[in-house]
Write a structure and sequence with these properties.
Blueprint: E1 2-6, H1 21-32, H2 34-37, E2 43-45, E3 50-56, E4 66-72, H3 79-90, E5 97-107, E6 111-115, H4 123-132, E7 138-145, H5 154-157, H6 167-187, H7 189-196, H8 199-203, H9 208-212
Parallel strand pairs: 1-4, 1-5, 5-7
Antiparallel strand pairs: 2-3, 3-4, 6-7
Helix pairs in contact: 1-6, 3-4, 6-7
Length: 223
């Protein structure tokens, strides 16, 4: 099984804020690929402190056969509690974990896929590091850095909603991240990094067909 975690804060109050991009990516990914992965509806699992959706992977050449989407029901700085519970309950190794989250150091509309990297001050990632005691998992980092450069008060900035003129770039970043999840599931993190971390691929609209033409045959995430 591979588990994809979309970080953010629960509740209507935080919907549409910069800190909730991880949750928005999972919502789009589930809708867009519902038929491909036979995703269930979202279901709240209080014992796991998460809202989850389960899917199946039909392709025989992919070693893992299930995909789990999860949105923590606790706040961002407690994200590690949910991640720890999920990994323990489903017996998932950290290398099969992908965390999707906003990143103030990446320009708005861009994404970056990384693994074994530091938290960069992100409280959700710091919480996960503290709970799972490892950095050996993958992350899809979605840029929220505005054109006016990094604000001084980051904690309040990430809780603000996007401006109308930013919406086009926000949508682009969410779509890129959703497509990146699909590629990670099918072909592994290394292949996804090679494609999505190239600026030339992000400057144009990446379509599923153009991505699939560059797929390698071997996945890198194990069951």
């Amino acid at each position: 099984m591979i588990v994809i975690i979309g970080l953010g804060n629960p509740g209507k109050k935080f919907k549409g804020t910069r800190h909730n991009l991880g949750r928005e990516v999972l919502d789009l990914f589930r809708r867009k690929y519902k038929e491909k992965y036979s995703f269930s509806d979202w279901k709240k699992e209080k014992k796991l402190q998460a809202e989850i959706a389960k899917g199946k992977i039909a392709k025989k050449k992919i070693s893992h056969k299930e995909v789990l989407l999860a949105k923590p029901l606790n706040f961002m700085n407690l994200s590690g509690e949910t991640v720890s519970l999920l990994l323990s309950f489903y017996k998932i190794p950290p290398q099969n974990l992908v965390v999707v989250h906003d990143d103030i150091d990446i320009p708005l509309g861009k994404i970056k896929i990384t693994k074994n990297r530091g938290a960069g001050g992100h409280k959700g990632i710091i919480s996960i590091f503290n709970k799972v005691k490892t950095k050996s998992f993958s992350r899809i980092r979605i840029g929220i850095l505005p054109q006016s450069l990094k604000p001084k008060k980051i904690e309040s900035f990430v809780l603000k909603k996007f401006k109308k003129e930013e919406e086009k770039k926000v949508k682009k970043g969410i779509e890129l991240a959703a497509n990146a999840i699909d590629l990670i599931i099918e072909k592994g993190v290394e292949k996804a990094m090679n494609i999505f971390n190239q600026s030339k691929n992000q400057d144009k609209k990446i379509r599923d067909k153009s991505i699939s033409n560059n797929y390698q045959k071997e996945p890198t995430i194990n069951k």
